[in-house]
Amino acid sequence: ACPDSAISPVDPAPCLRGVLQRSGSGKDADILLRAEVRGAIETPCSRCLEPARVTLAAPLTMTFVPRSPGDPEEAEDPDVVYYSGDEIDLGPEVRDEILLGVPLSPLCREDCQGLCSVCGGNRNLTPCDCEARKSASVFKQSAFAKLKV
After folding, report:
1. DSSP 82-96
2. Which of 13, 60, 129, 149 is the most buried (most CB within 10 A)?
């Protein structure tokens, strides 16, 4: 799960599969990762806030370059990440790809009716006529209702 978002994994949970290629030798080797994040996540529906299942298939290409003294905090190229030591933490890069793979407006289903703008009820669970009643009362009070044709 991403603690700073409303996204949580579901079956099949997102996994990373790919290939690491090393160029150079020793501690000065650049490492190229070519992979894909696949799986499913659950996030709130953009219309009704019920859980929406989203299937992911996001490619990930990243070059890990050993940090040298004087390197800036982040590389200028977004596909380049500095590392130091003997281990590389892929977590932040995979998290970013998962977040980028989530649609801007995920839906629990294509025909989601969303929430009623008057009473706030989930219109998928119980239909309501609040909008129709509100429109009728607004029309009755408007100047057009007083016109005689």
Report:
1. EE-SS----HHHHHH
2. 60
